[in-house]
Specification:
The complex is a heterodimer of chains A (203) and B (592).
Chain A lengths: L3 H16 L9 E6 L2 E5 L13 E5 L14 H10 L4 E5 L2 H7 L4 E2 L4 H6 L3 E4 L8 H11 L4 E4 L3 E6 L2 H24 L17
Parallel strand pairs in A: 6-7
Antiparallel strand pairs in A: 1-2, 1-4, 2-3, 4-8, 5-6, 7-8
Chain B lengths: L6 E6 L4 E6 L2 H7 L2 H12 L13 E4 L14 E6 L6 E6 L3 H7 L4 E5 L6 E6 L2 E6 L8 H7 L7 E5 L2 H4 L7 E3 L3 E3 L4 H7 L2 E7 L9 H17 L1 H10 L4 H7 L21 H7 L1 E5 L9 E5 L4 E3 L3 H7 L8 H14 L3 H16 L15 H10 L4 H4 L3 H7 L8 E2 L2 E2 L9 H9 L12 H6 L13 H18 L11 H12 L5 H21 L11 H5 L14 H12 L9 H6 L6
Parallel strand pairs in B: 1-6, 7-12
Antiparallel strand pairs in B: 1-2, 3-4, 3-6, 4-5, 7-8, 9-10, 9-12, 10-11, 13-14, 14-15, 16-17
Helix pairs in contact in B: 1-2, 2-19, 2-21, 7-20, 11-13, 12-14, 13-16, 17-19, 17-23, 19-21, 19-23, 20-21
The chains are: A alpha+beta (203), B alpha+beta (592).
Chain lengths: 203, 592
């Protein structure tokens, strides 16, 4: 039985992802780790309009009946939990970040907030970009060293102690990419204001 | 290898001899330093047959690979031993300057074995160890010993015990640099049992750093992060750790009158704001620390460092006392006599309740600020009723037939957070390997301060995951050895990167948390070997059965059982709290 407090947390973050244009109607997913279990969004459920029955409680280390209901991305969520200290995962489709991921191997923010919080976001590539072990391993490996990563052309995976925290990294990344896009439109010379910013890409 | 000095100093007080030998670097990679290395070495050196106050117990002083590098708060060191208070594995760590100096003397670890026939003190310089007669120092208080042995902050540093350690008080601290302490669990009594009064160190060389460029970058970024956090750049420097008094009181989690209530009507009078306004002389810092949370306070009678939040709570709200001057003086006395302020204050609070309920014949009662100093002195010298208080609240309350009035877990007095108002903190206290402790993964950040994000403090389901993560993280930080306050502004990922920059060995964040998990499980194995069981993972009955009757936490008790079940599963332990073979194999502990 899923605690009402946990459901409310999912509902609020899911709604915020949708209203902030970080996902389409049925895109993205959320999960949290509870010890040896994972609570994850049900397959096909709308994050912007979650009901308590849209949350699936399943085992972390092996299958049970929960897998029949869980998000198609359950495997990647499990692999992240088994390979990192994460207690929450937010997967979404931030549009500007996805656009930049199509031409870059890493996203190095130029705005102050994301420079401070993220330093660098690596981009990983996987052709079969949904639910495969190859994709799960690549994403989890990248998240060993970074709290948020981009899967090229697909979306972001962010980790945290809470959904709130992982959402924070996701929205910070998208905001940063929107700022960079705006600077490209303005198209004026960049004035560096950050000491040691040349080291960000080594982070 | 950069970072580590790769050398152990092994001292035998039976013969007043020493030897040095290389640190096992495989062990160092797996356990890092400080608490981790201490636990690993203690596992080999001190078995269940050893009485904590016998010559067979050892003191293991250890620093970490970041110590003395200049990274923020890289001044700390730890001592590991078997606790005379709890009988569990114990480590306590301290800041100041001594740890940095010990590293610069060229050692990662110092093991002290045996017992000297007569009082002795040890002097360590690079490549040189000497033993000195301490007859003239025995009986002296901490400040006097520290001055006499030539304390000089950046060159020569003194670690010693006071009368409480000499008199084998089971809540005695080891003191360094005059007023810093390795306090909890009674390591001062172990040092006293060895007739070892002091250890003085003089160092020379800073450790080597492999990637200087990356080191400087991370140093700079850490400075920015600490400056950006209001907690580390404003609250702690301006008010000290006592800034927590009003915050914890406001949420109804400040244990009051031996945990009979969880809000104290006198909190404002003993708050950080009042301390700063009326008694602060200046701030002080440990070596390489930009936070500067240390207070130097003055009353008509004393001037010295402190008091910290936990101390102010223990002599304040826990005892129903709102006289900050009396608290500052009790703190100064504890530092000079070498005694743990949390256990001292909490034990006095327990005695006050025993007395008020008529279970002992004493003038102690809640609110009697005038009795604090006398009680502390009596404990340190084992005078009168102080002889009972000197061994902590559980032994004292048990002697008088009411162990339930000791607010302790595994025999260690609980710190300043009522877990009925912070459910995760309750699980943390119950499962902490050294007994109730707020430095073993404090849930204050998540449940009250919102660090990194606020979670529901009354939530039970899922709480164990946070507790496990923070316990592992704290064991990792204690193995580096850094100050926990750094972690309030800087995430674990920075520590992993800094360790990689210094040593040249690549550690990811998860690797560091895994080190912490390894240390936690090893400590658990140690306690199981000592005979501790699931039944010891508990809390005083008051917290499990007596709901708070007023305030923001009204109606709550600690929902320990469901959290504990979830915790064991999450840790990969069986239903009795024993690590499963698969978990031990995963952590490379299967051969123990």
């Amino acid at each position: 039985m899923i605690d009402q407090r946990i459901y409310e947390m999912f509902r609020e973050i899911g709604r915020d992802l949708f209203t902030s244009d970080m996902i389409s109607s049925h895109g993205g997913n959320l999960s949290i780790r509870l010890g040896d279990r994972v609570i994850i969004k049900r397959r096909g459920a709308m994050l912007g309009n979650l009901k308590i029955h849209d949350l699936v409680d399943t085992r972390l280390d092996k299958n049970d009946s929960g897998v029949a209901l869980a998000s198609t991305e359950l495997l990647v969520h499990r692999t992240i939990y088994l390979n990192t200290p994460a207690l929450a995962v937010v997967h979404c489709h931030p549009r500007t970040a996805i656009a930049f991921s199509l031409s870059r191997d890493e996203l190095v923010p130029i705005d102050n907030e994301a420079s401070y919080l993220l330093k660098k976001v690596p981009v990983v590539t996987e052709e079969f970009a949904s639910g495969t072990p190859e994709m799960a391993n690549k994403v989890a490996n990248a998240l060993k060293n970074y709290k948020i990563i981009m899967l090229r052309g697909h979306g972001s995976f962010a980790t945290g102690q809470t959904l709130d925290e992982a959402f924070h990294w996701s929205s910070t990344l998208e905001e940063s990419c929107q700022i960079e896009l705006a600077t490209k439109i303005i198209n004026e010379p960049f004035i560096e204001y950050r000491k040691m910013s040349e080291s960000y890409n080594k982070f | 290898m950069a970072g580590w000095a790769e050398k152990i100093l092994d001292i035998d007080l039976n013969t007043k001899t020493y030897k040095t030998y290389p640190l096992d670097m495989e062990m160092a990679r797996s356990f890092i330093g400080g608490r981790g290395l201490g636990a690993r070495l203690l596992w080999e050196l001190v078995g269940p047959e050893v009485d904590p106050l016998s010559p067979e117990n050892v003191l293991i002083f250890a620093n970490g690979p970041l110590t003395a590098t200049g990274y923020q708060t890289s001044n700390r060191f730890s001592v590991s031993t078997k606790s005379p208070l709890t009988g569990t594995i114990l480590d306590a760590n301290s800041g100041g300057f001594w740890g940095m100096q010990f590293k610069k003397a060229g050692y990662d670890v110092m093991i002290v074995r045996g017992r000297s026939e007569k009082p002795v003190w040890i002097e360590i310089k690079p490549g040189e160890v000497s033993f000195h007669d301490a007859d003239d120092l025995w009986g002296m208080r901490v400040r006097a010993v520290t001055a006499k042995l030539g304390q000089n902050n950046n060159r020569r540093n003194v670690l010693c015990i006071g009368p409480a350690g000499e008199n084998l008080s089971r809540i005695a601290a080891i003191m360094n640099d005059g007023e810093r302490s390795l306090a909890r669990g009674g390591p001062g009594a172990v040092m006293g049992s060895k007739n070892l009064k002091a250890i003085v160190v003089e160092g020379k060389d800073r450790p080597e750093i492999v990637d200087q460029e990356r080191f400087k970058f991370l140093l700079y970024e850490t400075r920015k992060l600490l400056a950006a956090s209001p907690l580390t750049s404003q609250a702690l420097p301006e008010f000290g750790t006592v800034v927590m008094m009003n915050i914890v009181n406001n949420v109804g989690a400040l244990p009051t009158r031996n945990h009979q209530q969880s809000q104290f009507e006198g909190a404002e009078a003993i708050s950080g704001e009042t301390l700063t306004e009326k008694y602060l002389v200046k701030n002080a810092s440990c070596w390489a620390c930009p936070i500067g949370c240390t207070r130097v306070s003055r009353t008509e009678k004393v001037e010295g460092e402190g008091p910290e939040f936990e101390t102010t709570w223990a002599f304040g709200a826990a005892c129903g006392i709102d006289d900050l001057e009396a608290i500052i003086e009790a703190n100064a006395l504890c530092n000079d006599l070498g005694i743990d302020t949390i256990s001292a204050g909490s034990t006095i609070a327990c005695a006050m309740e025993l007395s008020e309920r008529g279970y002992i014949d004493s003038d102690l009662c809640f609110g009697r600020a005038d009795l604090l100093a006398r009680s502390v002195e009596d404990m340190a010298y084992r005078r009168d009723f102080g002889a009972d208080m000197a061994d902590g609240s559980l032994r004292m309350a048990t002697k008088y037939g009411h162990p339930e009035l000791s607010m302790s877990a595994k025999g260690m007095e609980m710190p300043a957070y009522d877990p009925r108002g912070m459910q995760g903190q309750g699980l943390l206290y119950a499962t902490s390997n050294r007994g109730a402790c707020h430095m073993r993964g404090n849930m204050l950040g998540l449940e009250v301060l919102g660090l990194p994000k606020l979670i529901d403090r009354f939530q039970v389901q899922g709480k164990s995951s946070f507790v496990i993560l923070h316990q592992n993280s704290s064991a990792s930080i204690d193995s580096l050895v850094l100050c926990k306050f750094t972690n309030m502004g800087v995430a674990d990922e920075y520590f992993a990167r800094m360790l990689s920059a210094v040593t040249g060995i690549q550690y990811a964040t998860g690797d560091m948390i895994r080190v912490g998990e390894r240390v936690w499980n090893l400590e658990r194995l140690y306690n199981l070997r000592e005979g501790f069981t699931r039944a010891d993972d508990t809390l005083p009955p008051r917290l499990l059965n007596e709901a708070l009757t007023e305030g923001p936490s009204q109606g709550w008790v600690v929902q320990l059982e469901p959290m504990l079940k979830e915790y064991y599963r999450g840790r990969g332990w069986d239903e009795n709290g024993v690590p499963r073979p698969q978990k031990l194999a995963e952590l490379e502990l299967a051969n123990l």
